[in-house]
Amino acid sequence: MRRLFGWICIFIMVPIFLLCGFIAGKESQAVKGLGTVLDEKIPIESVQLVENSYVFDHEGRLISEIVTDQQNRTYLSYEDIPDVVKTVYIESEDKRFFEHIGFDAAGMLRAVLINAKSQSVEQGGSTITQQLARNVYLSHEQSYNRKLSELLYSYQLEKTFTKEQILEAYLNAIYFGNGTYGIGTASTYYFNKQIQELSLAELVFISAIPNNPTMYDPVKNFHATKERQERLLQILYENGSISSDELQDALKGSINLSIKTRTDTNADYVTYVHHELKQLIAEKEGFTQQAESAKNNDTLEKQLTEKVNQVLSKGVIIHTALETERQNTLVRAIEQYIPSNNIQGSAAVINHKTHKIVALSGGKNYEKYSFNRAYQAYRQPGSAIKPLLDYAPYIDITGATATSRVDAGEFCKDDWCPENYSGKNYGKVTLETALKYSYNTAAVRLLDQIGIEKGFSYLDPFQFANISDRDHQLPAAIGGVSIGVSPLELTNAYTTFGNKGFFYQNHAITKVTDLNGQTLYEWKEEPTRVWKESTNTQMLSLLSAVVKSGTGQKAYFPSDYIGGKTGTSNNYYDLWFAGLTETYTGAVWVGKDQPANIESMYTQSPQQLIWKEMMK
Questions:
Q1: Domain residues for 47?
Q2: Domain boundary at 130, 158, 174, which?
Q3: Is residue 274 a part of any domain in this protein?
Q4: Which residues form the Glycosyl transferase family domain (predicted)?
Q5: For the chain, which end, N or C, has fewer CB atoms within 10 Å of the first or last residue's CB respectively?
Q6: pLDDT for 342-358, tens place per residue?
């Protein structure tokens, strides 16, 4: 009885409240009218509903759906919602929808009388506008304070929007069970069809769900949903919305659920896309600049995360450069050539002509959002650093060529005496011979001759995250750095060889648009000259020799151009191969997450075989 009494109080108080407000507004200019007060206290400019966002590959194929705040929703415009759906909800939920001002006094009174008669809450008396207000702005708390707020929000909605706009928002806001919101999403989720493809029987079937999504869950309570569908069809027939034949056909029409699983593929690549999206928004929205002078980066990071979530919740399309077939090939190659369960591998492939990341492996058996070795694992690069730190700078500074000679004999400085892999000394050899057989003493001499600081200045444009001043020592010439580089970083750097000595920051995201195709964010290309074009020509010759007749022969396959460099860190902890073809650049790392000796894999050269597969 207390609940019924509360309903009666609301029914009586609301008209009195409105009347007093209008009278007060007329009586005194000094007192704000009700409309002004509500505009100040309850400003409503738009109905913001969370929408799904999408990730597409370079051919425009959907690879991942992003659901924010657990609200799986695809928004439909009023024109795209079938008329019979609109009629179903108006007839079953709010017959006087096009007549009332947000709440229906007659409907509320009718609900009070029916509830009083049954001594329970049989009817709520809520209009479609009230339900929209509750779903978007309020909670489902059972209190009279919430109910009064609901009425005021409804009044404001009616002032701001047309009836058609309110009905459109309502049909996109309501819950259809199983994490699905909106009539359009329900259509694709339960039948795996667009709403325009549904039959009358199917349309009314899913329209039955929101009245009580638990009771009318088609997956768990199919028969209950079917019974309500039949009642709704009868209502449509009785008000003349459908004919007798249509009624009979719909009642007999079979309902075959076809539950749609959410598209979410290419976990390695999509995980990186989310990482890069955050970087892109930070760059374009000024967070990157603020971070340089911020005293509290934790606060800034929180604000950035909120901004990213806000962008995704509005519904965007993230266009990427992913080459799905190449990505699949890379993932298979990692599985095929690293059979051991305790050895891992990761890789990245970039189209250096478009400056886009086209494939990326975060590791064997990779799971979405887990540690992604392609860009989060930093390991000593071994001899794979030599072209970047030793050879290209030396050639650029001295004007040397592939046939210029360097001493590959014994070298000692400051009590440090590196050795060649074979333990032998070779005397004077050409730069081509020194690189293709990866002579350590020759590489160290090159860096020593140009100067450590000068050599490292050539790495600055690549922005290696964990190469620091403490690494500015001769052992770095053969990969002896404190932390190391990631496969993606190394791939990025090697793209310079494919761009005549220019370095571009390469990205996975080509652009971010809203659902109407308007561009919201995209990267700006700013090339940096690292070394001269003549230097690059010599380096392409050296790298080609490595693959054709040197330590990288297992990576070879016929191509207009192919070149690369092997790398092995101390104690066989890490195996690397980085290189390029006419169009693509790639790097592969093989090792253990906790660095340990993998000499048993060395002769098999899995890193070269993986590189070969992903680059072909």
A1: 1-52+76-174
A2: 174
A3: no
A4: 60-234
A5: N
A6: 999 999 999 999 999 99
